Amino acid sequence: MAGRLRAAGYEVTVFTRRQETAADLLGSGATWADSPAAVAAVADVVFVMVGYPADVRQVVLGEEGVLAGSRPGMIVVDHTTSSPELAVAMAAAAQRQGVASLDAPVSGGDRGAREGTLTVMVGGDDAARQAVAPCWQATAKTVVACGGPGTGQQTKLTNQVAIAAGMVAMCEALVYASRAGLDLETTLRAISSGAAGSWSLSNLAPRILAGDFQPGFFVEHFVKDMRLALEECRRLGISLPGLTLAESLYARLVDQGHGRLGTQALILALADIDDLPLPRPAGISDPA
Amino acid sequence: MAGRLRAAGYEVTVFTRRQETAADLLGSGATWADSPAAVAAVADVVFVMVGYPADVRQVVLGEEGVLAGSRPGMIVVDHTTSSPELAVAMAAAAQRQGVASLDAPVSGGDRGAREGTLTVMVGGDDAARQAVAPCWQATAKTVVACGGPGTGQQTKLTNQVAIAAGMVAMCEALVYASRAGLDLETTLRAISSGAAGSWSLSNLAPRILAGDFQPGFFVEHFVKDMRLALEECRRLGISLPGLTLAESLYARLVDQGHGRLGTQALILALADIDDLPLPRPAGISDPA
Fold first, then answer.
1. How far is B217 from chain A (nearest CA, A)?
2. Chain A residues touching residue B193 (CB < 8 angstroms)
3. Which of A146, A166, A176 lies closest to B166 in CB terms?
C-alpha cells in the first residue's frame, strides 16, 4: 500500500519494526523514520498496518507512538483489523490532541494491496475521511463510510463472521463429495452458480482440488480476527455457534502446525487428507 | 415443470396424489391417469417429483407404481431430492424390467421451475440421459452428468451441505452487524462482493432486512434434505459439524412453528427478532 502511494507521487516517510521490510520502499525514494512518533512529526496522514490490537495500541498510543509525535490537524488511519473498542479509545485520545483518527480495516488480501483494489471500511469523522480519500485512490477500489469510530472495525469483523462458517460450508461440501465418490470438478461445476455458490467455493475450492494450500490469507491471521469477533460477541451478549465452531476447527489447524497455510487448509481439520482423492499439499508430511 | 413440457408441445399424462394440484395442467390439454402405473403404461419417459424417499419408493416401486406399469425401453426420471441408496436400488430394479432409471434432482427452486432455468444433476445411464435431454430443454438451463446411479442425488446433497453452514454464516453476520449497531444496508454493500460474498448474502440477506420471510425454499424441505445428507454421512463414516449445527438450528425453527417459512428464517433461531433492528416478518407473533 505504501509502495502504491509512493508510485502515485506522494512523499512517503516509513517506519517498520524490522527495517529490511521497508527496503524496496526506501529504494523507491521513501524516507526512513526511527519511530512512529518520528513519522508523525513530518506527515499529514499517518497510515498504520500492524498485527494485533496490542501492536496498534503501542504504535499509536505508546511512548514513541504516532500521537506522541502528532501535530493538530494530522490524521491517523489504522488499516489493521483490530478491536472496535480500541478504535473508539484511539479516536477519543486523538481528538484531545486535535488529531482525527479513522479505523479503516481493508479486505481484498495481499493481491488487493498489490493491485490497489482493496475495499476500505471506514469508521470515524466524515471530514477526515474525505481528506484521506485522494490517497485511497492509489490503494483501494471501494471506500465505504460505515459510521462513527469503531464501525469500520465492526464492519470488517462482520465480514470475517460471514467468512467463518462459510469456509466450514465449502470444506464440508468437498469432504462430502469426495467421500461419496463424486468427480469433484463436475460437482463444483454443478453447484457453484446456484444457491450454494460463494466466493470461497469459486475461488478456494479449486485450489484445494489442485493441492494448493498457499496463503491468500494466513490461517493464523484469520484465527486472530475470529477471536476479536468472539470477544465482541461476549461484550455484546450474543452467541454465534457457527463462528464458535469455525474458530475451534481453525485452532485445531494451528495446533497441527498449519498456521502459515491459507484459510482453505480448513479441510485438513475436517478430514484426513489421505482419505480424500485430493493431491496432498506441499508441506503436509506423510502419515506416521 | 410438467406445464413447461406441455407448452413445448409434449403429450403429457399426469397423476398427482390430490387431483386438484393438476387442474391447470389438465386445463392445458394434459391427460389424467389414475396411478403412476397408468402413467407408465402410456408414456415413453416418466418424471417423478414427490416429497420424501418413502414417497419415491411407493410411486416407483409400489404396487401401483411406475415399474408396475412399465414396458421395456421406458425411462423413469426421479427429480425428487432423495436417498442415493434408493436411487441405486431403483436403477437395479428398473434394469431387471428393461427400463432405465435416472436420479435427477434439481436446484433453482420454484422460480427456476416456472422459468425453465433449473440445474439438473443426473446420475445413471448415459444413453438414457441423452434420450431425455430434449425434454430438459423445456425445463432446465443446465444438465450435469454426474456419473452412475445415485451420483445425481449425491451431487444435490453436496449442494445442500454447502448451503447449510453457509446459511448459518449469512445469518450470523446479520446478527453480529445488527447487535454491533451497524447500518445493515451499508454493511451488506461493504462485504457482499469480496471473500465473504455468497448467493445467500446477495439474495437472502436483503429479504431479511425487508422482513420478507416468504419461502423461496421451505425450511421443512431443507430439513428433510439435511437429514438425508446426515444419514449418508453416517453411512460414509464422516462427521460434518457445520451441517450438524445447521440441522439442529433448523430443527429448532420447525419446533417454533416456522417450517413453512423460507430458509432465510434461520435468523429467528439465532436471535430474538425483537432484539434486532429489523422489521418483524409477517406471521411472527408478538412476544408474550
1. 10
2. 119, 142
3. A166
Query: What Cα–Cα distance (Å) separates residue B201 from each residue in A122, A255, B135, B190?
Result: 21, 31, 33, 12
Q: Which residues of chain B have pLDDT under 50?
A: 287-288
**Contact between B169 and A162 using a beta-carbon 8 Å cutoff:** yes
Cβ atoms of B247 and B239 within 8 Å: the answer is no
Q: B148: closest CA among B100, B211, B80? A: B100
Strands B106-107 and B118-123: antiparallel
How large is the ipTM?
Answer: 0.96
Interface A-B, measured as beta-carbon pairs within 8 A, has a size of 242
Q: Which residue of B has its CA nearest to A190?
A: B144
Model pLDDT, residue A28: 96
8 Å CB contact of B154 and A177? yes
Under DSSP, the state recorded for A217 is S
Segments of chain A scoring below 70 in pLDDT: 282-288
Could you tell me which CATH class the domain A154-274 is placed in?
A: mainly alpha
Grid cell listed for A239: 452467541
Domain boundaries, chain B: 2-146, 154-274
Q: What is the dihedral of CA B67, B220, A173, B135, to 10 degrees?
A: 40
Query: How open is the CA angle B214-B217-B223, to the nearest 5 degrees?
Result: 115
- The 3-class secondary structure across chain B, one letter per residue, is CHHHHHHCCCCCEECCCCHHHHHHHHHCCCEECCCHHHHHHHCCEEEECCCCHHHHHHHHHCCCCHHHHCCCCCEEEECCCCCHHHHHHHHHHHHHCCCEEEECCEECHHHHHHHCCEEEEEECCHHHHHHHHHHHHHHEEEEEEEECCCHHHHHHHHHHHHHHHHHHHHHHHHHHHHHCCCCHHHHHHHHCCCCCCEHHHHHCHHHHHCCCCCCCCEHHHHHHHHHHHHHHHHHHCCCCHHHHHHHHHHHHHHHCCCCCCEHHHHHHHHCCHHHCCCCCCCCCCCCC
Query: In terms of CA atoms, which chain B residue is nearest residue A165?
Result: B169
Q: Is B224 a catalytic residue?
A: no
* pLDDT tens digits, one per residue of A140-197: 999 999 999 999 999 999 999 999 999 999 999 999 999 999 999 999 999 999 999 9
Q: What is the DSSP letter of A211?
A: T
Other Cβ atoms less than 10 A from the Cβ of B209: the count is 17
Nearest residue, CB atoms, B162 vs list A84, A164, A170: A170
Name the class of domain A2-146.
Answer: alpha beta
CB contact under 8 A, A151 and B181: yes
Instruction: State how far the Cα of A178 lies from the Cα of A183, in Å rounded to an integer.
Output: 8
